[in-house]
Amino acid sequence: MAAFVEPHFDAWSQGSGNMTVVDKVPPEMLHMVHPHWNQFPPMNPLWHSILGFAIFMLGMISMTGNGCVMYIFTNTKSLRTPSNLLVVNLAFSDFFMMFTMGPPMVINCWHETWTFGPFACELYAMLGSLFGCASIWTMTMIAFDRYNVIVKGLSAKPMTNNGALLRILGVWAFALFWTLAPLFGWNRYVPEGNMTACGTDYLTQTWLSRSYIIIYAIF
């Protein structure tokens, strides 16, 4: 088996020569790529295929599961409790995380680089940050609600629908703040890794950029 695989890998390695992972990036996006990535060779096309397939399968599973949660909640009156509002908000955020990020990632894995241009790169990273932050803080609110019920028991003040909706509004407002900040100069959104995805710039060493990463990581 090893003798069968090695010639294919050697042929690919020799064919790549001195290429880097940045060489396939469209010219209009090169100004967004940090020099750090110039030292890495392009990834084996086989791994691009495996990654694209994995993202496709995970996306389908995620959207199906979270879609079912939202459907059951909206069609079952007995489940519309304040606590479940937080669960549905988590399902909503996770659903749209994969809905907006999965397909572009699969297409980029096929082309082995980012193919949608600078604006789409920023939009992709912005949505990833928005839904990711919203999911994390929704889970925090769910944990706080469970703590309140388990630790305080019958003496705990029950959460109301208005209370749950207020928490959800706060989660999205908080996530939106951190999402929009890079668009106004506090950090930025850039291509990263094997250049098939975009995210927050965590490599630029200026204090303006680093302060965003540090504070965002804490909160």
TrEMBL record:
CC terms in the record's Gene Ontology section: membrane
Localization in the cell: Membrane
Transmembrane segments: 46-73, 85-103, 123-144, 164-186
Occurrences of domain G-protein coupled receptors family 1 profile (ranges): 65-219
Keyword Membrane attached: yes
Gene3D superfamilies named in the record: Rhodopsin 7-helix transmembrane proteins
Domain of life where this protein originates: Eukaryota
InterPro entries (alphabetical): GPCR_opsins (IPR050125), GPCR_Rhodpsn (IPR000276), GPCR_Rhodpsn_7TM (IPR017452), Opsin (IPR001760), Opsin_RH1/RH2 (IPR001735)
Biological process (GO), any one: phototransduction
Any GO MF annotation of the entry: G protein-coupled photoreceptor activity
Keywords of the record: Chromophore, Disulfide bond, G-protein coupled receptor, Glycoprotein, Membrane, Phosphoprotein, Photoreceptor protein, Receptor, Retinal protein, Sensory transduction, Transducer, Transmembrane, Transmembrane helix, Vision
Topological category with respect to the lipid bilayer: Multi-pass membrane protein
Pfam short name (any one): 7tm_1
Function, as annotated: Visual pigments are the light-absorbing molecules that mediate vision. They consist of an apoprotein, opsin, covalently linked to cis-retinal.
Entry's family note: Belongs to the G-protein coupled receptor 1 family. Opsin subfamily.
Protein name per Swiss-Prot or TrEMBL: G-protein coupled receptors family 1 profile domain-containing protein
Organism annotation: Anopheles epiroticus
